């Protein structure tokens, strides 16, 4: 969906955030990150730390991230690769004695980092997340065929062809079992009221930006 | 029993010729036997899945989900919404919970929905198909319809994450939910209740972006099914089904394993046990064929 901030706006947004919150990163998170007001509730019990399926790859576990937020380690948190490895498995949430919505906070930190242009540039899930968002907001429904093609070809034509060939057997199997339709490339399914769908998303973003002091 | 009616939220993967079209077909067959009428929510939209957060904050995602509620409330009043996809169900439920807890979030959501001429009132409930089966029918009633018990077939019940957490099915534990095993037993199959990978995450959407890390999860999930002597895995989640089935070839290449474990839906089991054909159970939709189920589907019914 168009209308998202360009690089210049991002840098500007970051400058303004720095000026506004100075050293109070906790307050910044509380006001601007999805469910950020929960962060101070973490009592560092460590119960959730071993919950992440990709845990060994996380440089900063969720409790560590919460601690870093309180310690004002803004740059380190927002540029971290860790929360992009959240699989939304909700292991942490059901274990946390304080009932922190950890999954949503991880996603929210990623959203905010992305918004400010601080998210790691080479991060496959970040790419996928953006592509997925663009994919389904275009028609109101996710189009698996286009999604796959965009993913395969994101590193250029040659890489895409290579990827497509390596997936050839699977692709044929999906066609054979009627679990994929080549017609989806041409447009595919979507909602009828795309206009209304996109307008309400635009409005939602506008309202949220206003509430969070993120609008221009 | 009188016909039960629900507003159906199929989700993006479940349309015909989508990656979970086999789920959709078998759910429809199962519902026919149970005399359940599913009416698709007119013009429903994608729930945003769990991985679209780079594109927006939470309000937009609540609005997206609230739109489906608003459509159902307007066009199918009085009917519970039923989702078959774990992520769709989770996201819709999360939205309902959040909007119920915050007057401001509710007002903001409705301000945005107005752009599409809609209003969220919070009247409809959203439920997973499994909840409908267990709560509106119950195991006993589900068992009464069985004409071909799935005798001699061993199932590893793979529940996965999102049908189980954070909401789960009422009365079940997060560590060891039993409903899938009970469903298997109700259909006359053998449930491998000691299967350890029941609630392990398969990587979810990250199977696409982080294939190596996810395939390690998938390897554990399939391996343990073999260790327990399973004939096949059964799951309630379309993403679990797709991930655990289609990446076995990659796992084999990487780890030198020889996995070829069918991964089916509870609705396929039920369709076959209810006397449906392989086609009605969409067994032709398996990449790894579920031969044992096909055999039962081909046999004449016992009673
Ligand atoms: S939901 Fe995310 S943060 Fe929580 S345990 Fe799973 S991967 Fe870790
Ligand atoms: S389980 Fe909850 S309270 Fe404990 S460290 Fe994790 S987030 Fe903090
Ligand atoms: S979770 Fe998946 S299937 Fe469900 S609506 Fe969203 S993208 Fe579609
Ligand atoms: S096991 Fe995988 S696909 Fe299933 S709910 Fe968990 S993350 Fe999603």
Provide structural commentary:
The complex is a heterodimer of chains A (216) and B (303). Chain A has 216 residues and is mostly helical. Helix content of chain A is 55%, strand content 0%. Chain A is globular, with a radius of gyration of 20 Å. Chain A starts with 6 loop residues before the first helix and ends in a 5-residue tail after the last helix. Mean pLDDT of chain A is 84; it is low at 183-187. Chain B is globular, with a radius of gyration of 19 Å. In chain B, 45% of the residues lie in helices and 10% in strands. In chain B, α1 packs across α12 and α2 packs across α4 (103-113). Chain B is α/β, with parallel strands linked by helices and 303 residues long. Chain B has 2 domains: 4-129, Glutathione S-transferase Yfyf (Class Pi), Chain A, domain 2 (Up-down Bundle); 148-298, Rossmann fold (3-Layer(aba) Sandwich). The mean pLDDT of chain B is 93. In chain B, the strands form 2 sheets. In chain B, strands 2-1-3-4 form a 4-stranded parallel beta sheet. A 4-stranded parallel beta sheet of chain B has the order 6-5-7-8, with helices on both faces. The longest helix of chain B is centred in the N-terminal third of the chain and has 18 residues, at 58-75. The chains are: A mainly alpha (216), B alpha/beta (303). The interface between A and B is large, with 69 and 65 residues. Residues 42-48, 62-63, 95-98, 100, 102 of chain A line the site of one iron/sulfur cluster.
């Amino acid at each position: 969906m168009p209308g998202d901030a360009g690089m210049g706006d991002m840098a500007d947004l970051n400058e303004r955030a720095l000026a506004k919150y100075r050293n109070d990163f906790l307050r910044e998170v509380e006001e601007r990150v999805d469910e950020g007001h929960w962060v101070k509730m973490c009592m560092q019990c460590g119960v959730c730390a071993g919950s992440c399926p990709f845990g060994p790859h996380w440089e900063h576990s969720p409790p560590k991230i919460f601690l870093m937020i309180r310690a004002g380690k803004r740059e380190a948190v927002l540029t971290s690769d860790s929360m992009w490895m959240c699989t939304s498995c909700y292991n942490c949430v059901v274990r946390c004695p304080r009932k922190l919505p950890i999954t949503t906070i991880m996603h929210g930190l990623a959203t905010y980092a992305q918004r400010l242009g601080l998210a790691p540039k080479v991060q496959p899930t970040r790419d996928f997340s953006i592509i997925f968002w663009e994919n389904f907001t275009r028609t109101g429904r996710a189009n698996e065929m286009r999604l796959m093609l965009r993913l395969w070809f994101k590193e250029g034509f040659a890489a895409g062809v290579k990827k497509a060939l390596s997936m050839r057997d699977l692709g044929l199997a999906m066609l054979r079992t009627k679990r994929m339709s080549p017609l989806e490339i041409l447009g595919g399914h979507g909602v009828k009221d795309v206009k209304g769908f996109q307008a309400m998303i635009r409005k939602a973003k506008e309202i949220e930006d206003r509430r969070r002091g993120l609008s221009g | 029993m009188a016909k039960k009616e629900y507003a159906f939220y199929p989700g993006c993967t479940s349309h015909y010729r989508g990656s979970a079209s086999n789920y959709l077909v078998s759910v429809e067959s199962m519902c026919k036997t149970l005399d359940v009428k599913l009416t698709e929510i007119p013009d429903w939209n994608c729930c945003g899945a769990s991985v679209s957060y780079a594109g927006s904050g939470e309000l937009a995602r609540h609005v997206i989900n609230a739109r489906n509620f608003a459509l159902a409330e307007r066009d199918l009043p009085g009917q519970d919404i039923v989702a078959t996809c774990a992520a769709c169900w989770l996201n819709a439920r999360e939205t309902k919970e959040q909007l119920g807890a915050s007057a401001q979030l509710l007002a903001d959501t409705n301000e945005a929905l107005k752009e599409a001429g809609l209003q969220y009132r919070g009247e409809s409930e959203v439920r997973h198909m499994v909840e409908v089966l267990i709560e509106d029918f119950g195991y006993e009633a589900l068992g009464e319809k069985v004409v071909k018990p799935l005798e001699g077939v061993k199932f590893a019940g793979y529940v996965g994450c999102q049908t189980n957490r954070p909401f789960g099915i009422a009365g079940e534990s997060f560590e060891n939910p039993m409903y899938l095993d009970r469903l298997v037993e109700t259909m006359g199959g053998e449930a491998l209740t000691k299967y350890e990978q029941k609630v392990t995450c398969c990587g979810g959407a990250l199977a696409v972006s982080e294939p190596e890390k996810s395939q390690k999860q998938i390897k554990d999930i399939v391996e343990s099914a073999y260790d327990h002597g399973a004939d096949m895995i059964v799951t309630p989640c379309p993403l679990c089904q797709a991930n655990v089935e289609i990446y076995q070839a990659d796992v084999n290449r990487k780890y030198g394993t020889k996995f070829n474990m069918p991964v089916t839906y509870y609705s396929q089991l039920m369709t076959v046990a209810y006397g449906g054909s392989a086609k009605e159970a969409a067994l032709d939709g398996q990449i790894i064929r579920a031969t044992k189920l096909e055999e039962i589907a081909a046999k004449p019914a016992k009673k």
